[in-house]
Design a protein that fits this description.
heterodimer, A: 261 residues, mainly alpha, B: 268 residues, two-stranded antiparallel ribbon, 11 helices, 2 strands
Chain lengths: 261, 268
């Protein structure tokens, strides 16, 4: 309960900071629209030449694009900005202020920076997803909806834990901003279902940079492609990584010496 | 005059190489994105070719492999980050220092760009062989294809650099150029042959591409290198490149003069 209150506070703080720069809303909206044009344009060109791509029908891939934008929005809303700030705090020594607060420090650094305009991506992603599902005429049963929710939650947890572990490395290697570039470069591969890539790349996109769990698996859940094994694997990896990130954080914070000490 | 410019370039190149070598790790990591894009496009189109029984508008799997491997090289050779860089340089007022130098600031940027290209060859060449090993390309080129392709790539580089440097000057009029940059990127991706060979694009895109400069930046050098063009098409291609080169050079002169008058530094 307390954590929800903290989360809400940071959300309000992010909103208050950004509402002073309202033009940023249009900047972000434009960027989101362009990203959508890029994705849907790519699909249009591909489906101009073929009816299905590796078994995926057009509307199913539009749903995948919706999830791609949605998850990208979730990452950019809170995970990535908070993690960047966290690494910056380690470098500058200002992490002191976080550790001193009477709340779980890992939780604080994970939710601290909220970029509210990224809500646009989330809303747009959801919109695209809903339109795609209507066009699919798919009867999404309770089981499928539930599987989608679980897969999305597992995917978000995996991406968060992945980021958290990489950011924690900043306790030892101070300069780590390149991690961001690696993640963003690889994330664009998630625009297409992971299953079309060669095996070694699938492995990389699943276990090295966990884009498969974040985008493809939830899309598989919605389009009735998800096997129970994959869902179970996603849940196991999510729980495992979350625990590992927690452990690694505790281990890393012991190495933190502060700036002025 | 020529010698003076040559000496300036030599000095600037040495500096840029030394500076950028400091960031070799970052350069290597930035290259991931530049290899991933052609790889993703190649996988998508290979999948489509297989679904169609091996051929899409005259491109087989091997042809796609050859196309996107050369695309990676041509894109790397011609691209610049100048539009994003100048957004910052102009907004923060650092542009003033560049204006104080006794020669046109574009020369320093060209040298900087070339230094980056030279350093990243270390990654680009292995990446090209790696892709060729994963996706065996179909190549039936003659030695003159490669020479002509190189020439077209050099012209494309000059033209694209001029065009993007000119667009970068938009930042002199407005400090919100990200919309311009993003629009430019999207147009370039679809109309240049970057996302797919123009032959597999919808008819409308192909027609529009004829009236835009972008296909001569990427598609033409690639198709020329791969030996896919007839002698007439080659002549038209070089003609179009020179035509657009003259246009962008002339526009740059005009925009530059108007822009410098417009510029008022911050914090002077």
């Amino acid at each position: 309960m307390n954590q929800l209150r903290i989360l809400w506070t940071f959300f309000r703080l992010g909103a208050m900071n950004e509402l002073a720069y309202r033009v940023n809303f249009f900047t972000q909206l434009f960027q989101a629209v362009m990203s959508l044009v890029l994705s849907l344009g790519g699909l249009a060109v591909v489906f101009n030449q073929t009816d299905t791509l590796a078994g995926w029908r057009p509307a199913e891939l539009v749903a995948l694009v919706g999830i791609y934008i949605l998850v990208g929005g979730l990452i950019n809303l809170m995970i990535q900005p908070s993690m960047q700030r966290f690494m910056e705090d380690i470098r500058m020594g200002t992490l002191d202020f976080m550790i001193l607060k009477p709340a779980d420090a890992q939780f604080l650094v994970s939710v601290r920076q909220v970029e509210i305009w990224k809500l646009i991506d989330i809303i747009m992603g959801l919109g695209v997803l809903v339109i795609a599902l209507v066009r699919l005429g798919a009867q999404i049963g309770m089981a499928q909806a539930l599987a989608f929710g679980v897969a999305l939650l597992a995917g978000a947890t995996i991406v968060y834990s992945f980021w958290m572990m990489l950011a924690t490395c900043a306790f030892w290697f101070v300069k780590t901003e390149n991690i961001l570039v690696i993640f963003q470069s690889m994330y664009q591969a998630g625009r297409w279902p992971i299953t079309i890539y060669p095996g070694w790349l699938q492995m990389m996109l699943t276990f090295l940079v966990p884009i498969a769990f974040a985008v493809t698996v939830p899309a598989q859940a919605l389009t009735g492609r998800l096997t129970n094994q994959t869902l179970l694997l996603a849940i196991l990896v999510a729980t495992g990584l979350f625990g590992a990130a927690r452990w690694f954080w505790r281990f890393g914070i012991r190495y933190y010496a502060g700036a002025s000490a | 005059m020529i010698r003076a410019i040559g000496e300036i370039y030599a000095a600037q190149l040495r500096t840029s190489l030394a500076v950028q070598f400091q960031y070799r790790m970052s350069l290597a990591i930035w290259m991931i994105g530049r290899v991933i894009q052609p790889l993703v496009a190649l996988v998508v189109w290979t999948t489509v070719a297989r679904a169609r029984g091996g051929d899409v508008s005259g491109y087989s799997e091997g042809d796609f492999a050859a196309y996107f491997i050369i695309q990676m090289i041509v894109t790397q050779a011609t691209f610049s980050w100048i539009m994003w860089e100048y957004d910052y340089i102009i907004r923060s007022g650092q542009f003033s220092f560049r204006l104080l130098r006794p020669i046109h600031p574009i020369h320093a940027d060209v040298a900087d760009n070339l230094a980056y290209k030279v350093l990243t060859l270390v990654i680009l060449i292995p990446a090209a062989f790696f892709l060729a090993w994963l996706f065996p390309p179909t190549l039936h080129w003659q030695w003159w294809n490669i020479v002509a392709g190189l020439l077209a790539t050099v012209i494309a580089f000059i033209m694209r650099f001029t065009l993007e440097w000119m667009l970068a000057m938009t930042a002199l009029w407005t400090n919100r150029v990200s919309a311009v940059n993003q629009t430019y990127d999207v147009i370039l991706i679809f109309f240049s042959g970057y996302f797919a060979p123009l032959a597999v694009m919808p008819q409308l895109v192909q027609t529009l591409a004829n009236f835009l400069p972008f296909r001569w930046l990427i598609a033409f050098p690639i198709e020329l290198t791969l030996g896919r063009l007839t002698p007439t098409e080659i002549l038209i291609g070089f003609g179009a490149q020179l035509f657009w080169l003259v246009i962008v050079q002339a526009s740059l002169r005009y925009v530059w003069r108007a822009g410098v008058k417009q510029y008022s530094a911050v914090g002077s």
